[in-house]
Amino acid sequence: MTDVIAEPAGPGVTAELEPRLAEHRRELTGYCYRMLGSAFDAEDAVQDTMVRAWRSLDRLEGSGALRSWLYRIATNVCLDALDGRKRRALPVDLSVEPSAPVEASLSRVLPDGAWVEPALDRQVLPSGGDPADVAVQRESVRLAFVAALQHLPPRQRAVLILRDVLRWKADEVAALLGTTTAAVNSALQRARATLSGMQAADVRPASDLREEHADLLARYLDAFERYDIDAFVALLAEDAVQDMPPFAMWLRSAVDIGTWMLGPGIECRGSRLLPVSLNGNPGFAQWRASGPDGGYRPWALQALEICGGRIVRITSFLDTRLFLLFGLPDTPPDR
Known about the structure:
The protein starts with 10 loop residues before the first helix and ends in a 10-residue tail after the last helix. With 335 residues, the chain is α+β, with helices and mostly antiparallel strands. A hairpin with a 2-residue loop joins strand 5 (296-307) and strand 6 (310-317). The model is unreliable at 1-13 (pLDDT under 50). It is globular, with a radius of gyration of 21 Å. The longest helix is centred in the first third of the chain and has 18 residues, at 39-56. It contains 15 helices and six strands. Among the domains are: 1-85, RNA polymerase sigma factor, region 2, helix turn helix motif (Rna Polymerase Sigma Factor, Chain: A, Orthogonal Bundle), CATH 1.10.1740; 211-325, Nuclear Transport Factor 2, Chain: A, CATH 3.10.450. The protein has a six-stranded mixed sheet, covered by helices on one side. Helix 3 packs across helix 4 and helix 9 crosses helix 11 (181-197).
């Protein structure tokens, strides 16, 4: 097994290269995202994979081998990127105890690369296919599940994603990783046991993005933009969690979240929201008012989780580079 960079492919190969590689970009981005826990790192890994593929595509034998060959390169890129790197986690896993809903909640900032980043559904999930497979893939990009994956050693992580999420056969994974089928089965068993021990399978199920939550999401958008915190809190589960990377803060209760929104979060009053789909769940892009002139500026990506008709988690990612990565405008679009 090798993905050694060779000389660029010849002109005849180059003419057909781009569409052949492009059709695999989304699924490769989803794979690299699950491996790395970062949308930015996944984008870099896929770009690196495509460059290596372009430089040696003329050595590929058989058009049917392209997909597995790309996954081999992407896996090596991800394993190299993970070598010696600390695992990413959710803010709640990086703090000893909840922050109080006071100004001190913004006093501690997490180190760069510490938290799992969000991913836009249309960049990491298939646009169609078997509904059962699509459901599995949606579950596998949820923030809690991606964070759980980061607990696995990198090769176990690759095995579990390839076998349980992408439905590869054991012998196919063995060929990709340059190992034996028995070793793959053993790694998969250990990976499943680790996730089971973390009770990853018991995490509340991902919400349905269709009609059953349309009213709840509309009320959320309306309450947030009017900054009606009583109405906002009424949409939350009693034990709802809020966190906000890069800050280490996290809150656990609708009451504390409401208090925080009227305290340190008060500057979000006057914001505009746009619905987006993040990590298999609903979410919103948030632009905050930038001054008396009525302008707006990118502020956060809000990833929501819904269970039992209530919002159970709000994770607001304040990295505004995500707006560019996800193709979102600098100002909120007109309604």
